[in-house]
Design a protein that fits this description.
Strand content: 5-15%
CATH superfamily of the largest domain: HAD superfamily/HAD-like
Shape: globular
Largest sheet: 6 strands, parallel
CATH class of the largest domain: Alpha Beta
Helix content: 40-55%
Low-confidence stretches: none
Number of domains: 2
Structural class: alpha/beta
CATH topology of the largest domain: Rossmann fold
Mean pLDDT: 92
Length: about 200
């Protein structure tokens, strides 16, 4: 079976909304997914790295990493893809701090996966496992991964600055922000690309 790599945060799990909820409890002005136009919360809001880290600590203390909401259609589409691919989540989450909670949440939500890798160098992992393709939400990571295999990039507002619209660089933008239907669009794109091959 061919292998594919998938990011977890903002691809499978809705980490962004979790961070927004906590930030909005304590800060003014409030932010939304539409106003989050840079990858890191600190770059959008001007908070310090320590404050952003504190938000993750609050999420952990509230058990959110064990009980995180899925993005719409993620489970059904991943289940469909698992019939043809071994799915390997690759996350830059800190393994020692979040591995147990991450695995619990994947299993609780019945997300099919072959194995999981905790590693920030996703390009290295894509090469190591020979992924057929990868799903990512971070433009910088997508540009690195696309040197090894095609990379589907969920088209969040924070990914719209850069030159990744060039057709020959291995990044395939997946629309879906307005209705949060990235996964349905991705599945259709994958099926279309499979027919071409």
């Amino acid at each position: 079976m061919k292998k594919i790599g998938i990011d977890l945060d903002n691809v499978v799990f809705d980490v962004q909304q979790e961070m927004i909820d906590i930030y909005n409890e304590t800060h003014n002005p409030k932010i939304t997914k539409k106003t989050w136009n840079k990858y890191y919360l600190r770059d959008v809001t001007g908070i310090l790295l320590e404050e952003e880290t504190q938000i993750f600590k609050i999420m952990d203390a509230r058990g959110r990493f064990k009980n995180m909401n899925l993005l719409p259609h993620a489970k059904d589409c991943l289940t469909e893809l698992s019939r043809e691919y071994n799915i390997i989540p690759v996350t830059s989450r800190h393994k020692e701090l979040t591995a147990k909670e991450t695995l619990f949440c994947l299993k609780k939500n019945q997300i099919p996966f072959y194995k999981i890798v905790f590693e920030p160098d996703k390009q290295k992992i894509a090469r190591q496992y020979g992924f057929a393709w990868f799903v990512e939400d971070h433009l910088d990571f997508a540009e690195q991964i696309s040197k090894v295999c095609p990379c589907y990039l969920f088209d969040y507002p924070y990914n719209r600055n850069g030159n990744s619209n060039k057709p020959d660089n291995g990044i395939i933008r997946v629309p879906g922000f307005d209705k949060e239907d990235w996964w349905l669009n991705l599945l259709a794109m994958v099926e279309k690309n499979s027919v071409k091959q």
